[in-house]
Design a protein that fits this description.
By secondary structure, the protein is of the alpha+beta class. It is 33% helix and 16% strand. The strands form 2 sheets. The chain has a 4-stranded antiparallel beta sheet with strand order 2-3-1-4, with helices on one face. A two-stranded antiparallel ribbon has the order 5-6.
């Protein structure tokens, strides 16, 4: 089956990328290796990270690609490969599939081209609230693997954002369903 993806040069996209084993905690256990893989790919294939949350088995992020560039798939392929290779170098045993390929990541990822300012805001909120949604923490500020802390420093969110269970003035948690 050939997947059709919307590609907009210079576009802003929301992504969900997941490990195959949804019980794994590799993404936070080896957060330094993931960070290094993302940084190394960004140096050769630039993108701007607008928002990011890394959970044990999946991550959500918003990227803006450079003008005249719409190839986010190549970036994700490289990030996945680099992270996997770094895990193997660390001695982590990675299961192989029936083709002999490393079976760490789900084959595909979810992407969504952001349409407007409200879509942008909703997805940034979804990203930052996700650790609470999954019950890893009770307050957004308590999850260390998130750009939420940058948003607080920049004055986008107050430190106690979502402590009441709402994000934004009119958006209830769960409005964006994946």
């Amino acid at each position: 089956m050939k997947y059709r993806r919307l590609k907009i040069p210079g576009g802003v996209y929301f992504f969900t990328v997941a490990l195959r084993d949804r019980q794994s905690n590799y993404l936070i256990e080896y957060i330094a290796l993931l960070t290094k893989a993302m940084k190394d790919v960004r140096e050769t294939m630039p993108y701007k990270t607008i928002a990011l949350v890394v959970l044990p088995d999946h991550l959500h992020t918003m990227w803006q690609l450079p003008d005249e560039d719409d190839n986010y798939s190549a970036r994700w392929m490289r990030i996945k490969k680099q992270f996997t290779r770094r895990l193997i170098r660390e001695g982590v045993q990675i299961r192989k599939n029936h083709l002999g390929e490393c079976d760490l990541w789900q084959r595909r990822f979810w992407e969504h081209a952001l349409r407007n300012e409200k879509d942008y805001e909703n997805h940034a909120n979804y990203i930052h609230y996700n650790p609470v949604k999954h019950r890893y923490v009770r307050r957004v500020r308590d999850w260390p693997y998130s750009t939420f802390h940058r948003y607080v420093r920049e004055g986008v969110y107050p430190l106690n954002w979502c402590d009441s269970g709402l994000y934004g003035a009119d958006l209830m948690v769960g409005e964006i369903v994946r």
